[in-house]
Amino acid sequence: MNIKFKELSESEFHSQNIPILFEDKLADRNFGLISGKTYSYKFGWQSTAIKPVVTEIDEFRCSIGVDLNFVVLELSTGRMLATISLDYFFYETKLIDGFIYVITELEIIKIDASTIKINARYNLPDYFEYMKLTEGAIVVKCVNGDVINID
Predict the structure, then answer these.
(1) Beta strand 128-134 with 117-123: parallel, antiparallel or unpaired?
(2) Relative to the CA of 57, which of 3, 99, 112, 126 has its CA 20 to 30 Å away?
(3) Which domains does the chain possess?
(4) In 3-state terms, what secondary structure has residue 134?
(5) How far apart are CA 1 and CA 55, in angstroms?
(6) Contact, 57 vs 14, CB < 8 A?
(7) pLDDT digits (tens, 9 = 90+) for 2-50
(8) Pairing status of strand 107-112 against strand 69-74
């Protein structure tokens, strides 16, 4: 993956004249920059204890998730293919059988990796604990012990 992530100070963030992926001017306390050969984007996020998660989808695309934000970028051009404002805090991204699963604390969003379109949304009965592939089925366990199967 040819994408680089660098943390920025607040003054660096405001002084650099480059496109913004996402920000919350009132709440952001952390700032970063992602860059590749032909593009650079800056963004902000609230949570001081977490870092953005950059996931390589394939050799041409990657995703970035943090707080209530999720984006998919085309690496060769830097073009944003999808921008999703999440209802719940981002946890992680999983790639399974041609789909991107955006995992948040109380919801999983299934995105078709070829079209980058939302295929399904799954509301969780409690906070997400883990997700695993078992005998061709995707099993999600929640903190309260509930287990759900998603397709």
Answers:
(1) unpaired
(2) 126
(3) 4-124 (2.40.10.480)
(4) strand
(5) 9
(6) no
(7) 788 999 999 999 999 999 988 888 899 999 998 887 788 999 999 888 8
(8) unpaired
